[in-house]
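Below is the record:
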Amino acid sequence: KVRRRLGTGVGGEVGTETRSLLEQLRGEALKFHKPGENYKTEGYVVTPNTMALLKHHLTITGGQVRTRFPPEPNGILHIGHAKAINFNFGYAKANGGVCFLRYDDTNPEKEEEKYFTAIREMVEWLGYQPYAVTHASDYFDQLYTWALELIRRRVCWGGVAVPCHSRGSPSRSCSLRYFWLGDMRKGKFGEGEATLRMKLVMEDGKMDPVAYRVKFTPHHRTGDKWCIYPTYDYTHCLCDSIEHITHSLCTKEFQARRSSYFWLCNALDVYCPVQWEYGRLNLLYTVVSKRKIIRLVETGAVRDWDDPRLFTLTALRRRGFPPEAINNFCARVGVTVAQATMEPHLLEACVREVLNEQAPRAMAVLEPLKVTITNFPALKALEVLVPNFPADESRGFHKVPFQPTVYIEETDFREEVDKGYKRLAPGQPVGLRHAGYVIAVQNIIKVGGSGHWAPPGKAAIVTLGRALRAFLHKNPEDPSEVPGGFLSDLNPDSLRVVRSALVDSSVLSARPFDKFQFERLGYFSVDPDSEEGKMVFNRTVTLKEDPGKA
């Protein structure tokens, strides 16, 4: 649950005592229809068969809430999808229902197996298990049969569905024989030459949306069986109907498709779910467009979809963001109809809140300065017990070797002392944190402040990435803010690699994605590229919010 007040900077106050996401999605809070009561929804089209179809629907579902998360497998999910995942899976969970993970795999040109795998991994990483994993392609035969039925019926609710030869402008008077005889399916038309269109006008004024188009591209699941593929406008509502979805939750830009959604189900006399829209979630200082991320990868601006500077979910995982923090952030944004554009520091605050409780403390130095203790108090190295969580020592300790040679941050020593400087300097000793000893430039005494140190050894081979924001402006896609386009707005200092850093030996056995708070430096996560003898850490967030935020 979210307790603390956070200002959004752009969207106003998020508020205090925000309820958990499940609390927000439970019961009557959203004023959604109950399963089987679709007809009570404003704008729902009731036909002579509606009540019989709803009765049959309840027989199949038992009155269970059913939602679905329907991503396109042509890229990696981003922070905006996290809200969609939480909304769809969360609403089902909050109301005792189930949620399908359904891949909208109707565009084989851009779909790759790695995207299918990553999408499911990210859903499960956020803590959700799909009731079933399905694909739009599972229903290609049924969808094609229904397309033929639309042609046979000729007159449907709101009009007819007709095939159209579209070299020039679409014409509603095209011969019905093209699609009926399967000429499109048999490959007798080239790509772009023929389409099947639904004869209706949508909310945004768009006329005759395309139902089928020709694509001579093998499908990853159906191979060469098809050279025609259905569109989202045709596929989505019918797949929802087949799976007996009760609440089709989608972002606000799909509101213009609501008319085609209802029209198509009713034209075929099949069960018609209800589409509900909510506001999408955007972040400043980033791009989430799949096309633009591909450009970033192709130009070498970022390493891949999981580059820690991006806000894809795989990138956030690599950077060390806990899934609980992302879910908490979605709860703070809330289930709103309005689009929310948030500052990244709000998400980072959620990360600190979780990592403060989860990440054990360790010591590290970024710019090591060698210090030799001339009167070391033992003949061999001592073992120092360091609490994993200093505020709660019941959560255990780890051992750190204390040797005659230690390393402190270069900035923790000055040859000349300024007023207010509390670290090591001639005539100004400091204590070594956790060690119980004090060092001075010439000898050891028992007064002074606290110095930060790390033991030498294997930990000397370590890389710490200090990832900053990839873009300089809040809205890198806005031509009025960045006339040269988003590629011209890249931050040249967005990734700094520190190769001389040292960490204490307690973290050398850490596994990929293990998280630590390096005292005074921030929260860090073990990068998957780490290997024996070469640890790589990504900085997740600083200990406190950066003053400039940008």
Q: What stands out?
A: Residues 1-17, 155-160, 457-461 have pLDDT under 50 and may be disordered. The domain at 362-456 is CATH 2.40.240.10 (Ribosomal Protein L25; Chain P). The radius of gyration is 29 Å. Residues 79-94 form the longest helix (16 residues).
